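Risk mitigation, structural track. In case the binding assays with zinc ion fail to produce interpretable data, a predicted complex structure has been prepared as a fallback.
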Amino acid sequence: MQRVAVLTEPDHVVLEDREVPDPGPGQVQVAVRAVSVCGSDVHYYDHGRIGGFVMHAPLVLGHETSGVVSAVGPGVSAPAVGTRVAVEPQTECGRCEQCRRGRYHLCPDIAFFATPPVDGSFAEYVVVPAHRAHPVPDALTDEAAALIEPLSVALHAADKADIGPGIRVLVSGAGPVGLLCLQVALARGASAVAVTDVMALRREAATEYGATATVDANDHESGLAAIGAAIGQADVVLECTGVQPAVDLAVTAAAPAATVVLVGTGATVTLPLDVVQARELVVKGTFRYAHVYPAAIELAASGRVRLDDMVTSHHPLEDAVGALLAARRDPMALKAVVHPAR
Ligand SMILES: [Zn+2]
Ligand SMILES: [Zn+2]
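Fallback model:
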């Protein structure tokens, strides 16, 4: 048997004993060593839903996962038992139009960890397709390997925006994903990266991670002026908040023909259509990622993004709730990590 932490209803997590899942054909079983908590986990804990994704039954949270391969199913030659891996937490149908076109993250039948009704990784063991267990080098800690998941979100967003040398980037929001977008933009050669946030402590964090400038987003006009003074108009905007005033500020700071990538999830927000049209902005949605785990692992292993520094607390599985509440208890908390196998 194994222990899992189950969200039975909002605000209520219990430890349960469950059968250890056996790997089927083409699958591997992973002993989970680190699971970093995501805003989406916290949202399910608080509300039992995120937009159209609604919990109708108990749900195991956690999707940012690393561990060690502990068993392999029939027909699996790699990764071998004992291999340390970052787990890409999605399994697609492999047959539909989106899968056939390589956009497996857009598969309508995608099974993604901790998204109802699919259980996540607040568990001692999980089973995934072998090709979703990506080997990591010794240079990466278990915590960094878990953070490959949100790093993949940032890398996918940077891909959408074609960030490269000489590009001026505005990152809207200095939460974990914003700080990862900042680091990825710098690693890809952006000439200047300004970061906005309403919280002074978050802006300080952005400075620590190399932001060219940070901007107080509490006031639209002074914020816009400060962005202009720091980087001019942005060639690329990575909007990581999903919050209306921040979206307004970020879009208005874009240069003509700039690309605006909407990374932050929110309810319905409005866009300043006059700005989008008059500047012919390219507005792109982004949903999770596809095909980026290997590149994210290479980038992290190269030392050009700092993942371990983002870990602000560690929790045993019994204290999954403490991990979920960490951000609420400490405004400087970035990533709480649960360690099921410890
Ligand atoms: Zn996440
Ligand atoms: Zn599919």
